[in-house]
Amino acid sequence: MGWCSLLLTPEVRAWLTALGDDDFGRVAFYLDLLRQRQGQLAAPHSRWLSGRLRQLEIPGHRRVHRLTYYADGDGTIVLLTVWRRWRGTHHELERAATATRRRSSPNASRTERSGHESP
Hints:
Layout: E1 5-8, H1 10-18, H2 21-36, E2 46-50, E3 53-59, E4 64-71, E5 76-84, H3 89-104, H4 110-114
Parallel strand pairs: 1-5
Antiparallel strand pairs: 2-3, 3-4, 4-5
């Protein structure tokens, strides 16, 4: 299998920046695995949520982090939101669905669609 690219929303980028070295290494391992398999990971690492929206579970020493993502047809994986396991899943699904709609909207700015923060 080939490699694909990752696009990060500002929320995911800020979360990654705030991680300590051990946690960052663990997250990088799972993101690399996700890229290698072009977004097609099976349980227990990933599971389908709704539509094209999926959830990546990253186990940690004290908590499990979950990232919502979807794979574009052009080899790009878009990481949308991140949360810890203790938070309500329904609320997080709504947040991820809203982020997906915002990114897919024809009225979305180029910055929102690309996943990059504006300077």
